[in-house]
Amino acid sequence: MGILQWFVDLGATVLLPILIFIFALVLGTKPGKALRAGIIVGIGFVGINLVIGLLVDSLGPAAQSMVDNFGFNLNTIDVGWPAAAAIAYGTSLGSLAIPIGVGVNVLLLTFGLTKTLNVDIWNFWHVALTGSLVYALTADFWLGILTIIVHLLLLYLMGDILAKYIEKFYGFQNITFPHGTSAPSAFVAMPMNWVFDRIPGFNKLEANPENIQKKLGVLGDSTIIGVMIGILIGILAGYNVQGILQLSIQTGAVMVLLPRMVALLMEGLIPVSEAAGAFVKKRFPGRDLYIGMDSALAIGHPAVLSSALLLIPITIFLAVLLPGNSVLPFADLASIPFLICLMVPIFRGNIIRTVIGGSIYIGVGLYIASWVAPLFTQSAIASNFEMGTNTSISSLIDGAVWTTFIFVWLSKIFSWYGMSALGLLVLFGLIYQNKIKPNRHKANPEKSGNPAAAPIEHE
């Protein structure tokens, strides 16, 4: 366990290149090409983290100033995902999430119950958190372990389902995001989008970045939009002219730099993705293999960033206006792109739909984060997390995600029976998605047309 923990402590920027290098060699990639792919992926992640750091460093103080400027006072502080990850891995149960996650993935792949090979090992902290919360609630260690396993099964099922949406919208072939924060939001966006499609007038609004730029010219350019949103946030934060202008250039820089860092990372992943496709096609005809990655690859899209920047002030005002909410959004405001990046493909890049859908999703999420705050705080104390002067803490990531509510609520009301039933349901979903559904499609082939060009239907 100590060796594994040392390996994980290397961080994603070192751990991921090593895993990509090993994975590429297993797939038959030449050593030199595999080495370069791994290094480029690592460099890409360094670049992404630098740009996200710029986003956090610029928007964090602005968000705090906005809160102070309007005199908002809520008693539960959003400590952010880095703190949530530290809390998740800091408990005795959470530290087991990585070996369990790898083991579950290997078993599912062996029996053909998932197409997702998850190399994003560090982000197993999402399942470690839900397991730790259930453990804090029930004091039942093994129920916490079962929660981790069921959560993993659910994320692999989500990864399998979402791969086609990710490829269609983002153009990432053989890549999916079994990410504990991002994946669940897509399944909320699906019914929302069904409703939006049936609202007269609203269903005709085309508000993706391409159409906006076409209609507004230079003012519709994603960089200019980023600058204008930065100006708006600076004004709401009460900044002076100098501060507003600095923030606007910083948000504009994020809009330009983040997609380029993602493109660099994809340069390293493309040869590995192609090798994975060829490997599976040769040895397992009829099966696909998706590389499970961090959804950081998706947040650089202009529709994601534009929507997320607009949602920052909306989230702060929702926190104050919603009766019964106790969470003050703060540290995770700059992480809102992770909350919505897989809603965007479902909404076909429509910024208006994403902002409205994201507002509803985050609004409900604030209630979840408030509800789970006592358990979150208890888990933080158990992991020796430094609370400072705070007596109640929570997080938008993953405190405001519906899967957190489901796992904790089921454990609270139905204990082992509820979690076991959910596990069986998800397992059946994996069997249907990877065994029954492919066989059914083979038995009922399309009569005509190119299946690749057919529109994607919602699951």
Given helix and strand content, the structural type is mainly alpha
The end-to-end distance, rounded to whole angstroms, is 39 Å
Order of helices and strands: HHHEHHEHHEHHHHEHEHHEH
Helical coverage, percent range:
55-70%
Number of domains: 1
The percentage of residues in β strands lies in under 5%
* Mean model confidence by pLDDT: 84
| DSSP helical segment count | 15
**Gyration radius over CA:** 22 Å
Largest sheet: 3 strands, parallel
**How many strand units?**
6
Shape call: globular
Low-confidence stretches: 447-459
Biggest sheet: strand arrangement: 5-1-6
Pfam family, one: EIIC-GAT
Region (Disordered): 440-459
Protein name: Galactitol permease IIC component
Organism: Planococcus massiliensis
